[in-house]
Write a structure and sequence with these properties.
Blueprint (H helix, E strand, L loop, with lengths): L1 H6 L6 H25 L3 H27 L4
Helix pairs in contact: 2-3
């Protein structure tokens, strides 16, 4: 039973990886906008810039894992 549930959370294809990365990106931009609202000026812009960078790093790792076949 747990294997069938576990299978739902495994990213198997590049399409699934891109959908997950898109969701992470949308969340990061939303969080960055909140940072700019909470911290006006240079600090908010810097925090906004860091949010998508984290998504780029995570996205590269996700795509690399799918290409190499670690999802099996």
């Amino acid at each position: 039973m747990f294997q069938s549930i576990k299978r739902l959370f495994v990213i198997k294809t590049k399409f699934e990886a891109f959908v997950v990365i898109y969701g992470l990106g949308v969340g990061a931009v939303e969080r960055g906008i909140q940072y700019m609202h909470d911290y006006p000026g240079f600090g908010g812009k810097l925090l906004f810039a860091v949010c998508p960078i984290a998504v780029f790093m995570a996205g590269a790792r996700i795509l690399d894992s799918v290409e190499r076949g670690y999802a099996d």
